[in-house]
């Protein structure tokens, strides 16, 4: 790194579900969201596992989530400044699904007087739909891009990424207010298996089919069609459904020539609490 090059730190939150090695190699700082049940609050990815949340949901325990506090972001940004950062680019899950990005913006305003430049990005996404943008941002920062260019790299990749998701039931999303109650009741009443997709930062219905097998067929079909339209990277997320996720990934490798490696990972406790066990999602992210 040349003496003239600014040290730009990249921050995200725990719902990016980045591969551990990539986050470490690119020096990405992750601020955890909170998962709350049994009267206690746990930091996602630090104090609670996806498996524990899945067990709690299956036992019909009430599980809620909470954004990080603005002070958590202030502390994070100040620590990065002490470590030599001259600017921070902070990339977070869709503001329509969490107040995390608002907390980051509040922290950025509090630190304006210190001279630390903080660029906050609402990814309008989650999971690796956001995560691919975070990785692009970190690579741009390492290559010497300006804070504005680093933020633009994250925003561009995230906004162009698509997420398609199968859930066993809409009940968990209804409880968390992430999808309309009427849709949840309709799906339950007719034993319909819902497919969702992310539209401008919000989860909306994409299709409804009668069986899990058909739902997974459609999930592969729509994701593969999207991925074949342009060179893209893919990721598969799941909660408590590793076999389903591996099957979907294998079928996508066959359906999308030249796709390369498809990372398969379990979503963390925060997203898991809202989508429920059995969920499988596919992220399609066009290469820059």
UniProtKB/TrEMBL annotation:
The keyword Metal-binding belongs to this UniProt entry's keyword annotation: no
Domain of life: Bacteria
Short name of one Pfam family: DegV
Membrane spanning stretches: none
Keywords (A to Z) from UniProt: Lipid-binding
Entry keyword annotation includes Zinc: no
Protein's name in the database: DegV family protein
Organism: Spongisporangium articulatum
